[in-house]
Amino acid sequence: MYYPMYYRIDPTYILVLIGVVLSLLASARVKSTFARYQRVRNRAGLTGHEAAERVLHGAGIYDVRIEHVSGNLTDHYDPRNKVLRLSDSTYNSVSVAAVGVAAHECGHAIQHATNYAPIRWRGALVPVANFGSTIAWPLILIGLFITGESSSLLINLGILAFSAAVLFQLVTLPVEFNASNRAIRILGSNGMMAQEEVGDVKKVLGAAALTYVASAATAILQLLRILILTGGRRDD
Ligand SMILES: [Zn+2]
To answer: In this structure, what DSSP letter does residue 71 have?
Structure first.
């Protein structure tokens, strides 16, 4: 039997689409902001690598290595090996964007060095969130498919698993905002940048932060969709 498409459209899919649009907007904005400030040279002529070294030393951190990693926007801090990895567009670049990104990653290194609580929570949530996002949908779909007592149990377990992934996205927010705030504060106070340049760094890091906000919003919308879809079945 043939069912036309419109019989099968799930109206809660709009929540997924809103998430997709938010993520696309955030990623377009971060790309254009980066492209703009990658072309602006910072007045001190510091490379991302040099800026990172100064920020770390200024914070009294001498045991973190700074390495070059390939790729674009692949910059990250690896707390296990105490290595700060800066990408092609950051390591040797003397742009305002490069210094901003380098200082942001230093912000993560400082968070670890000072035992900043949200970054510990985030670290603890990584395996839980990965496992949760893998098993959530299978549990929910099996729960919806079967009948009987175990149906609502499986659905509730699936929702719990998905919530762990949402929680991870939420805990990421203070970690990222705090790393950027540290970066902006340090760059503005240690003479590495003029106030005007710090304003430009704020724009770059603000755009980057929006991508995390979009991810968190997307995860919440998906959770909402699951709650709507399973509404009638959860307390059978
Ligand atoms: Zn970050």
So the answer is: S
